[in-house]
Amino acid sequence: MSTQPSKNLETFPNPNPDRDYVIRMRMPEFTCLCPKTGQPDFATLYLEYVPEALCVELKSLKLYLWSFRNEGAFHEAVTNRILGDLAGLISPRFMRLTADWYVRGGIYTHVVSEHRAPGWQPKFDPPVVLPPARWEGFQGH
Amino acid sequence: MSTQPSKNLETFPNPNPDRDYVIRMRMPEFTCLCPKTGQPDFATLYLEYVPEALCVELKSLKLYLWSFRNEGAFHEAVTNRILGDLAGLISPRFMRLTADWYVRGGIYTHVVSEHRAPGWQPKFDPPVVLPPARWEGFQGH
Amino acid sequence: MSTQPSKNLETFPNPNPDRDYVIRMRMPEFTCLCPKTGQPDFATLYLEYVPEALCVELKSLKLYLWSFRNEGAFHEAVTNRILGDLAGLISPRFMRLTADWYVRGGIYTHVVSEHRAPGWQPKFDPPVVLPPARWEGFQGH
Amino acid sequence: MSTQPSKNLETFPNPNPDRDYVIRMRMPEFTCLCPKTGQPDFATLYLEYVPEALCVELKSLKLYLWSFRNEGAFHEAVTNRILGDLAGLISPRFMRLTADWYVRGGIYTHVVSEHRAPGWQPKFDPPVVLPPARWEGFQGH
Amino acid sequence: MSTQPSKNLETFPNPNPDRDYVIRMRMPEFTCLCPKTGQPDFATLYLEYVPEALCVELKSLKLYLWSFRNEGAFHEAVTNRILGDLAGLISPRFMRLTADWYVRGGIYTHVVSEHRAPGWQPKFDPPVVLPPARWEGFQGH
Amino acid sequence: MSTQPSKNLETFPNPNPDRDYVIRMRMPEFTCLCPKTGQPDFATLYLEYVPEALCVELKSLKLYLWSFRNEGAFHEAVTNRILGDLAGLISPRFMRLTADWYVRGGIYTHVVSEHRAPGWQPKFDPPVVLPPARWEGFQGH
Amino acid sequence: MSTQPSKNLETFPNPNPDRDYVIRMRMPEFTCLCPKTGQPDFATLYLEYVPEALCVELKSLKLYLWSFRNEGAFHEAVTNRILGDLAGLISPRFMRLTADWYVRGGIYTHVVSEHRAPGWQPKFDPPVVLPPARWEGFQGH
Amino acid sequence: MSTQPSKNLETFPNPNPDRDYVIRMRMPEFTCLCPKTGQPDFATLYLEYVPEALCVELKSLKLYLWSFRNEGAFHEAVTNRILGDLAGLISPRFMRLTADWYVRGGIYTHVVSEHRAPGWQPKFDPPVVLPPARWEGFQGH
Amino acid sequence: MSTQPSKNLETFPNPNPDRDYVIRMRMPEFTCLCPKTGQPDFATLYLEYVPEALCVELKSLKLYLWSFRNEGAFHEAVTNRILGDLAGLISPRFMRLTADWYVRGGIYTHVVSEHRAPGWQPKFDPPVVLPPARWEGFQGH
Amino acid sequence: MSTQPSKNLETFPNPNPDRDYVIRMRMPEFTCLCPKTGQPDFATLYLEYVPEALCVELKSLKLYLWSFRNEGAFHEAVTNRILGDLAGLISPRFMRLTADWYVRGGIYTHVVSEHRAPGWQPKFDPPVVLPPARWEGFQGH
Ligand SMILES: [Ca+2]
Ligand SMILES: [Ca+2]
Ligand SMILES: [Ca+2]
Ligand SMILES: [Ca+2]
Ligand SMILES: [Ca+2]
Ligand SMILES: [Ca+2]
Ligand SMILES: [Ca+2]
Ligand SMILES: [Ca+2]
Ligand SMILES: [Ca+2]
Ligand SMILES: [Ca+2]
Ligand SMILES: [Ca+2]
Ligand SMILES: [Ca+2]
Ligand SMILES: [Ca+2]
Ligand SMILES: [Ca+2]
Ligand SMILES: [Ca+2]
Ligand SMILES: [Ca+2]
Predict the structure, then answer these.
(1) Chief location of this protein (chains A, B, C, D, E, F, G, H, I, J) (predicted)?
(2) Spacing, Cα F29 to ligand 8 middle (Å)
(3) What are phi and psi of J117, to 5 degrees?
(4) Is the peptide bond before A126 cis (omega within 30 degrees of 0)?
(5) Out of C28, C40, C66, whose CB is closest to F141?
(6) Residue E64: what are its φ and ψ, rounded to 5°?
(7) What residues contact residue B43 under an 8 Å CB cut-off, 6+ apart?
(8) Ligand 1 centre from A109 Cα, in Å?
(9) How far is CA A67 from CA A62, C30, H54, I35, in A?
C-alpha cells in the first residue's frame, strides 16, 4: 500500500450513531513552514469530536497531517483550516481542534477552535461527555 | 473456582439504591486484536457509573475483559460495545466508559462514551457527584 | 487519656454556622477486612462537607476509622455506611465521601457518595465553594 | 521602618473598580498555636478575591498573618476569622480563603470559606473569572 | 529590521472571524520596576482571547512587553493596563490576562482580569471554548 | 486453598543463578501496631534483592506481611526484622528493604536497611545493576 | 508483508562500532500468561544496550514480543530469557532489560537483568554513558 | 504527659547496631526568627543518619524543633547547630541534615551539612545505603 | 541575513578555556525522513559538551538541524553522525548527544552517544561537572 | 538602607569552617541584555558551594544580580564571570553555578561551571555532600 502525503481524508461509518460519544486524538507530529520566513514550525494537535454518521480514518489523517510538511501556514489560519477540513469531511455533532505551537520569540501559543452542527444540543444536562478545555498530558516543549 | 475468560458478567445488589453515588474503576489490563491486521491492541479502560438496582461484580468483570484477548475489535466499536454490555447488564442511572488506546501511527486515541437511564436526572443541582471528564492518573503509555 | 477504637463519634459546634464553608479531610490510614476472604483491604478516604450546626471532632474520627480494622466490609457498602454515620451525626448541609481502594484483581476502584440536607441550596450561583470532583493529591497506590 | 506583628491591616484603592478581576495570593508561612495543647500548628493559606473599592496591602497582610504566631486558634474558627477580617476590611465583591493545614492524627485538613457582597452577581455568564476550587501548586506537606 | 522596545502594538486580520476560537499565549519574559523601591519585578503573563476582526501580532507584542522593562508599575494596575491596551487595540469578543508575579514578602500573587465585548455571548451552550481558569503548566518560580 | 496470615515464607529456585539480577517489589499494604499505644501504624515497603539459589515466593510474602497486622512493632526494629527474615530465608547476594512510614508527630520517617552475602562483590565495575537509593514512585502519604 | 508473531529476531549492522553508545527502548505492550493459572500477565519492558557489531531490528523485536502472548512464563524466568535471547543474538558490549510487571496480590514487581561481554570495560572513566538504573517515565499502572 | 518545647533530646538503643542502616526523617514544621529583623523564618528539615549505639527519639525531636520557635538563628549557623546537637547526642556513624529554607529576597536557599564518625567507612563497596543528595519530595514553597 | 538550511556549522571562541564547564542544549525541533518508507521521523535532541577552544554557534546549529528535514536517516546512524559533525567541528573535551525519538511500532527509542578528547580527564575527582545520564525534562511524546 | 544595583558583593564569616557543608541558592530573577541585539535575556541561576572562611551575603548577592540588568552579556561568558566573581570573593572549597537560560531559536541552553580550591579534596569517601548535577525543581520556562 502506497503511503504518500495527501489531502484526501477518508472516513468510516460511525458504529454507534445513536449515541453521543467523544473521540479524542493527540497528534504530536505536526510540522509546516512559516509563510514569512520559510522556517519550520511545529505543533502538537489535539482533536476531539462527537461523530454523526462518519468518523475520520486514522491512516488518512496521518497522511493528511504529513501533507502540510512543505506548505506555508500561519498558526491561526492553519488551525482553523484543519478544523474546517475535518468538520467538512464528516459533519460531526461537535468538533474541537487545539494546536499547541512550539515557542517563538519567547512566547508559547495555543489556538483552540470549535465546530457544532447547527441546532445540535448535547443529549443530557449537564453534558458531561463534552471534553474539558484541557487534554491530559499537555507537554511543555 | 474456575477462572476462564467469559462474556458472562455477574451482578450484585446495590447496597444503597436510595442514594446517587459513583463507582469508578481503572482497568489497565485490556487487550484485543486489530480486525484488519490481527496485531494486538492495548488500552486502559476507565468505567464510571451511578448504580440503580445492581452493581457489576469485580471478578466477572475481570474475566469479561479477558474474553476480548483473542477477538478482533475496532477502537470505537469495542468501546461502545463494552459500555452497551455493562449498561444492559445493570441498567444504571449513569455510566461512562473511557478507553485510552496505546499509540498507533503516531496518534494517541481516547474514546469516551456515556449512557443515562431515560428520564433520569441527577438529584441535586449542581450535580457535583457526576464525574468530571478526566480521571486522575491518566497515563502516558 | 484512653485511645481505643470506637464507633462513638464526637462533635463540636460549628463556629460559623452563618456561612457556607467546606471542610475537607484526607485520611490515608483506613483498613478493614474482605467479608468473603477475610483478607485485609485498604483505602484512602476523602471527606468533604459543609457543616450546619455541628462539626466532626478529629480525634474521635480517627478512632472511628480504626474501629473498622477487624470488621468485614464490602467496598460500596462501607463507603456508604461511613457517609451515613457521619451525615447522621452532624446533619450537614452537604457531605461527600470518596474512598480510593487499593487495587484488586488488576482493577482500581473508587466509590464516591454524597448527602445533601433536604431543600438545601448553595447560597450563591454559581456555587463555587462546592468541592470539585477531584481532591488534589490523589495517590496511585 | 518598623516591622512588628500587627492586626492593623492596610488597604489601597482598587486601580480598576470598573472591572471584575481576581487577585490570588498563596501564603505558605502561616503558623499559630493549638488552643488545647499549646503546640504549634501550620498552614498554607490561599486568598482569592474580586475587589470593589479597596485592595489588601501586601506588607500589612504579612504582618497580620505574623500576629497569629503566638495565639491559640482552632482550624475552622481561624480560617473563618481571617476571611471575616479581610472581607470586613475591604468589602470585596467576592472573597475565598482556603487553609491547607499540616497533617494531625494522620488526617490532612483543608478549610475553604467564601464571602460575596449581597446582591452581587458576576458580570458575565458563564462567570469564568471566578476562581476554580483548586489553586495550581497545592503542596503535599 | 529595527527591534526596539515600543508601545506600538500591531495587528493582523482575523483569518476566521465567523468562528469563536481562542488564542492563548504564555509569556514568561515580563519584567518591570516596583514604583516604591525601584527594584525589579518579574511575572509570567498568560493571555487568552477570542478575536473579532483583528489579532495581536506576535513580534510587536514582544516589543510591547519589553517596553515595561524600565517603567514603574504596581501589580494590579499594570495587569489591568496591559489587558486594557490589548483589548482596546483589537476589540476582541473575549480577553483574559493572568499575571503570575514572583514571590514578594513570602507571598505569591496572581492577578486575573477579563474583558468581554458588550452584548457578546458565546455562540453555544455550554460554551466549552472559553478557557478554563488555569493554564496548563503554571510554574512555581 | 487456605489463605491465613503466616510467618511461614516460601521460596522457589532462582531460574538464573548464573546472573546477577535484581528483583524489586513495592508493597503498599503493610500495617502493624505501635507497641507503646496499641494504635495502628502503616508503611509502604520496598524490597530489592539479587538472588543466589532461591527467590521469595509472592503469595507467602503477602501472607507474611499480613501476619504483622496485630503485632506490636517499632519502626526501626520491624524493618530490620523483616530484612533479617527474608535474608535468612534465601541467603541472597544483596538485599535492601526500605520502609516508608506514614507521618507521626508531623515527622515523616524512612528506614533503609541492607544485607550482603559475605565476600560477595558485584560482578562488574561499575556495578550498575545495584539499585539506586530511590525507588521511582515514592508516595507522599 | 506478512506480520505474524515470531521468535525469529533480525539484526542490522551497527553503523558506529568504533564508539560506545547506548540504545534504549521502552516497550509498553508486553503480555504473556501465568503458567500456574493461565491468566494474562502484563509488563512494560525497558531495553538498554551498547552494541558491538549488530543492532536489534525494530520490527522483528515487536513480533518477537508478540510471540509471548499465548505462552506461559514466570516473571523472573521470562525477563532473563528475553535478555538471553537478545544478548545471544547480537553479542552486545552491555545489555540490560528491566521488566515492570503489573501489580499482583497487591505487590508491584520489577525484574532487572544485565549482560556484559567478557572482558569488556567502558572506554572512559567515569563511564557516564552507562545508563542509570532508572529510565525516565516509569509508569505507575 | 507534659509537652513543652525543650532542648532535652532523648534517645533509645539502636535495635540493630550490627548493621549499617539509614533512618531518614522529613520535618516540615520548623520555624525560628531572623536575628537581624526579628521576623519569622521557615524551613523543611531532612535528617538522614546511620545509627551507632543510639537513635533519636521521635517525640523529643519534635519538642526540640519546637524550642527554636522564639529564638533568633541564621540559616547556616542553625542548620549546623542542629546537626551538631543531634550528632553529639547519639554519635552516629553518619548523619546529614538538609534545611530547605523558604524564599527570601527572591532567592531560595538550602543548607546541607554532614557528620561522620572518625575512621568510619561504609561496610560495602559501593556503599549504596548512603543516602543520595536529594530526598524525594522536595517542595517548592 | 539569509536563513536557509545548511550543513555549515559555525563556531565562536570559548570565553573560558581554562575551566571545565558544561554547555547543555535541548532541541525539540528535529525532524528527518525514514530511509525505508520516506515517512517523517521526529526527535528531541539533547547536546551536552565541555568545550576546548571553540563553542558551537546557536543560529548555525539551528540551521544545521533544519538541513536534515528532507534527508533520509536511520535513528542510530544520524545520532552518531550529528555527534561526529559537532565533535569534529569544535574538538571538545567531552560531548554527548541524546536523541529521544518519537514512538514507532509501539516502541520508544533513545540513542545516546559520547565523544571524549583522547587523554582528556576531568580535572577533579569526583568529576561532578560531567552531566548525569538524564536531562531534566525528558518529555513523553 | 539604600538598595541600588551594585557589583559590590559582601560576605560574612562562615559559622562552621571546620565542616564541609553545602549552601545552595536558586535565583529565578536574573536578566541581562544580548550583546548582539540589545534584547533582554533571562535565566534562572543555581549556585552551590562549600564555604571556606567566608559566605556570600544574601542581600548584596541580590543587588549584584540586579546590576546585570542593563549590561550586555553572552550566555557562556556571563555564567563564568559570575562564578569567577563569587569564587574570587570568598575562595570557597567548591563552587558550581548553573544558568538555565530561557529558550532562544527553539533551543534551551544550560551552562554549568565549577571551581575547586587547589588541592582541596572532599573530606570523606564517597563524598556524598557534593551536590548532584541537578537541582530539584528545574523549571521548563
Ligand atoms: Ca506547551
Ligand atoms: Ca445551575
Ligand atoms: Ca494516554
Ligand atoms: Ca488511586
Ligand atoms: Ca449557562
Ligand atoms: Ca496538603
Ligand atoms: Ca506561581
Ligand atoms: Ca513518603
Ligand atoms: Ca571506575
Ligand atoms: Ca510501576
Ligand atoms: Ca568500585
Ligand atoms: Ca524548595
Ligand atoms: Ca573516582
Ligand atoms: Ca520520551
Ligand atoms: Ca570508593
Ligand atoms: Ca529549562
Answers:
(1) cytoplasm
(2) 14
(3) -65, 135
(4) yes
(5) C28
(6) -60, -45
(7) B30, B31, B75, B99, B100, B101, B102
(8) 8
(9) 9, 55, 70, 18
Joined grid coordinates for residue D67: 500576629
How does strand F11-13 pair with strand F54-56?
A: antiparallel
Q: What angle do CA C33, C37, C38 make, to 5 degrees?
A: 35
Q: Is C10 exposed, middle or buried (0-12, 13-18, 19+ CB in 10 A)?
A: middle
* A30 φ/ψ angles, rounded to the nearest 5 degrees: -105, 135
| Contact status, residue B73 vs residue B41, Cβ threshold 8 Å | yes
**b/e per residue F23-48 (b: at least 16 CB within 10 A):** bbbbbbbbbbbeeeeebbbbbbbbbb
CATH classification code of H21-116? 3.30.1130.10
Q: I77 by DSSP, 3-state: which?
A: helix
Q: Which fold has domain A12-116?
A: GTP Cyclohydrolase I, domain 2 (3.30.1130)
Helix ranges restricted to H, G39-91? 58-66, 75-90
> Does C56 carry a binding-site annotation?
yes
User: What per-residue confidence (pLDDT) applies to B123?
Assistant: 73
Instruction: Give the tens place of pLDDT for each residue, H105-116.
Output: 999 999 999 888
Q: What is the pLDDT along chain H (141 residues), one digit of tens a residue?
A: 458 999 999 999 999 999 889 899 999 999 999 999 999 999 999 999 999 999 999 999 999 999 999 999 999 999 999 999 999 999 999 899 999 999 999 999 999 998 889 888 777 665 555 665 555 545 555
> What is the DSSP secondary structure assignment for residue J75, as one 8-state letter?
H
Q: Would the annotation count D114 as a binding residue?
A: no
E75-123 pLDDT per residue, tens: 999 999 999 999 999 999 989 899 999 999 999 999 999 898 988 887 7
DSSP B136: T
F77 vs D130: which has the higher pLDDT: F77
Closest-CA distance, G105 to chain C, in angstroms, reads 7
Third-level CATH fold of E11-116: GTP Cyclohydrolase I, domain 2 (3.30.1130)
The alpha carbon of residue B19 is apart from the nearest alpha carbon of chain G, in Å, by 31
* B24 alpha carbon, closest ligand: 4
Q: Which long-range contacts (CB under 8 A, 24 or more apart) does C117-123 make?
A: C117/C52, C117/C91, C117/C92, C117/C93, C120/C93, C120/C94, C121/B125, C122/B126, C122/C20, C122/C94, C123/C20, C123/D116
Q: Using 50, 70 and 90 to split pLDDT, how confident is the model at F120?
A: confident
Give the CATH number of domain F15-116; options: 3.20.20.70, 1.10.10.60, 3.30.1130.10, 3.40.630.10: 3.30.1130.10
The beta strands (E) that lie in H9-93 are given as 11-13, 21-33, 40-50, 54-56
CATH topology of domain G14-116: GTP Cyclohydrolase I, domain 2 (3.30.1130)
Name the residue among E12, B102, I28, E21 with its Cα closest to residue A82.
Answer: E21
Q: How far is the CA of I124 from the centre of ligand 13 (A)?
A: 9
Specify whether the CB–CB gap between J56 and J9 falls below 8 A: yes
Which residue has cell 477570542? E50
Q: Does domain D20-116 have CATH number 3.30.1130.10?
A: yes
Domain ranges of chain J: 11-116
Residue with cell 520517617: F109
Closest residue of chain F to G141, computed from CA coordinates: F137
Q: What is the ipTM of this complex?
A: 0.93
Rg (CA), chain F: 16
Nearest CA in chain G to C107: G103
Percent of the residues in chain A that have a pLDDT greater than 90, as a whole number: 68
Q: Is H100 in contact with H44 (CB distance < 8 Å)?
A: yes
**8 A C-beta contact, residue I67 and residue I6:** yes
Contact H7/H67 with Cβ under 8 angstroms?
Answer: yes
